Amino acid sequence: MSARLLVTQPGPQTTVQDLGRVGAQAYGVPVCGALDMVALRLANALVGNAPGAAALECRLIGPAFTVEGGPVRLALTGAEATIEITRGDETRSYPAWRAIDVPEGAGVRIGALRGSGAAVLAVAGGLDVPLVLNSRATDLKGGFGGLDGRALKAGDRLPIGAGALGGPCLELPRPPSLAFDGVLRVVPGPQDDAFTQEGMASFLGTAYRVSREADRMGIRLEGAPLAFRTSADITSDGIATGAIQVPGSGLPIVLLADHQTVGGYAKIATVISADLPRAGRLTPGAQLRFRAVSVPEAEEARRALEREITALVASLTPVRAAAEIDLAALYAANLISGVVTACDPE
Amino acid sequence: MVATPSPDQNRLGLLARFLGVGDTAFAIEFGTGIDPVLNARVHRAAALIREAAFPGVVETVPSFRSLLVHYDPLATGATALQEAMAGLDLGEAVASAPERVWVIPTLYGGEAGPDLDEVARATGLSPAEVVALHAGTLFRVYVQGFLPGFAYLGVLPPELELPRLTTPRVRVPAGSVAIAQSMSGVYPVESPGGWRLIGNTPLRFFNHETTPPTLFAPGDGVRFRPVEADEHAAIRAAVARGDYAPEQEAGR
Predict the structure, then answer these.
(1) Does A272 touch chain B (CB under 8 A)?
(2) CATH number at residue B237
(3) Closest CA to B108 of B85, B94, B92, B125
């Protein structure tokens, strides 16, 4: 029987996510998928998965679970956090951005996230939940995908796909900086003409703050309300992830992965795709400004991000100075106890 | 002198404008407002773009008067795609009679349609007249979206046009038949909502296990058929058992 994760504490909102559900937006099906695609791809690379394998997205605090049915290799990326592995009465702590081998029966606890509100925990072999419309992403509003279309709860068992645990555990020697410089780049439009010149100037010239109403659908901002030349209402049209819609209150909302496919509020601008992972990491209280760029500049920024991700994946190296001991064989022979992982540097 | 139609007059580039939507999408906008001819052009453009299979196009999302084209900026660019799409010949994209018309059994009023009496009061009609107008209209599927399986059905007789509720409901039951402005629709799942609820249907409109996942396709016709509580209950039971085939009336 293949390995499973038995959830003991779910965390505030832990969901199964992948690169998203594309191809059914014309039927009203949202894309969903991980808020931080860079984190998803790095986590999957660390455990030897394809870039789009399904993983857990953790918000604010990670889950705790027990490994059943066999050992697993896992990696947390996208935020700093302490990962505690408990086997018997011994607990060891590990950082993010590296693979960790966890033996059957061990408990895993991921603490509070730092530097981002959305981390990704990948498991070698990927989370083996059913494909729904070609994706394993959880659609919380639609109630499908992922694990029964909802966030994890205590007692859930997450099936893990077949994955090789061979080879050394990898780490990312220089993780990407999570420090936010306070700027999200945007392409103005498609309804920038619904706003007055002053409205556009406020949008690009003043700081906004992430309100407490921030979830996977979008982030409501606090700051200078934007003045409409016409009105907030448009004939409903399609929405791209990153669209910044402005309802009658004049306060912008940055739409994220779970946004609806069409909407009837004017959209002043769209956050460029290279900056969407940064938007996905924001937590309430964060300050930000918008800076306008052209479509060709945005496309180039995306290509630059892609080169960065490729370089990061190429930089993965075995965890430093791992003792080359065949611990699996030792476990099997029951010769040692209390040692948690075959690639523990200590 | 009679003007000779230019062979280019149906080119997408002449009938629409392109609007930037970040670096992973752009909109092809055919005009403003809700209009059957504009909507027919949107759906025609979506079909032509699908057939042409432009490299790098991920998917398209049709709406009332605009088509959102999602693309992969690592595989292509907005400029190249827009140049290629501008040359598409939309032909005479007109709103012809629907090829199929779905019949939606609907229990009007009472608990199933808690806003029916208020709609009647606000429009100066009797509840029976509201039902007769709604059920007497051949609707078209203009857009699917907002929720998986929600279809914007137009257009409502002008006598029934009312604004959305000022305070949206926190919980609208699945199957609620609703109206707002010039549109009607059915809530496919329980959700918050600001449309006025005039009835309820037991039919299901979205199933994530089927391809396509929705009952309706763009351009389909839809007619609501008033039923009594007992028939509503019988159909609800049949739907739950999985042996109810939604009714269709012959289209064109």
Answers:
(1) yes
(2) 2.40.100.10
(3) B125
* Chain B residues whose beta carbon lies within 8 Å of the beta carbon of residue A30: 148
- In this structure, the answer to whether residues B82 and B111 fall within a common structural domain is no
Predicted model pTM: 0.90
User: Considering B51, B86, B121, which residue would you say is the last residue of a domain?
Assistant: B86
Q: Do B147 and A142 touch (CB under 8 A)?
A: yes
Same domain, B43 and B151: no
Are B117 and B80 within one domain? no
Contacts with B144 from chain A: Cβ below 8 Å: 26-28
What ipTM goes with this model? 0.91
What pLDDT is attached to residue A57? 98
- Residue B42's H or E segment, with its range, is helix B36-52
B64 interaction partners in chain A (CB closer than 8 Å): 235-237
Please give the domain boundaries of chain A with CATH numbers for all domains: 4-171 (no CATH), 183-301 (2.40.100.10)
**How many other CB atoms are there within 10 angstroms of residue B238's CB atom?**
13
Set of chain B residues whose Cβ sits within 8 Å of the Cβ of A141: 147, 191
Structural domain that includes position B62? 12-86
- In this structure, the answer to whether residues B72 and B154 fall within a common structural domain is no
Closest CA to B153 of B29, B27, B32, B36: B36
Q: What is the pLDDT of residues A129-148, one digit of tens each?
A: 999 999 999 999 889 999 99
In this predicted structure, the answer to whether residue B1 has a pLDDT above a threshold of 80 is no
Q: Could you tell me the CATH number of the domain that includes residue B46? A: 3.30.1360.40
A3, pLDDT greater than 80: yes
Beta-strand relationship, A4-9 and A157-159: antiparallel
Tell me: do B55 and B179 sit in the same domain.
no
Are both B64 and B123 inside the same structural domain? no
Of B62, B86, B110, which closes a domain?
A: B86
Find the CB nearest A187 among B23, B46, B146.
B23
Contacts of B42 in chain A (CB under 8 A): none
Residues B50 and B141 both lie in one domain: no
Q: Does the CB of A11 have a partner CB in chain B at under 8 Å?
A: no
**Strand ranges (E), A69-141:** 72-77, 83-87, 90-94, 99-102, 107-110, 118-123
Spatial CA neighbour of A81 closest among A119, A48, A54: A119
Looking at A90-207, which runs of residues are DSSP E strands? 90-94, 99-102, 107-110, 118-123, 157-159, 170-171, 183-188
Which B-chain residues 198-237 have CB contacts (< 8 A) with chain A? 206, 208-209, 211-214, 218
Q: What is the mean pLDDT of chain B?
A: 93
Residues 224-243 of A with CB under 8 A from B: 235-243
The total domain count for chain B is: 2
Tell me, what's the pLDDT at B123?
Answer: 97
Q: How many contacts (CB atoms, under 8 Å) link A and B?
A: 160
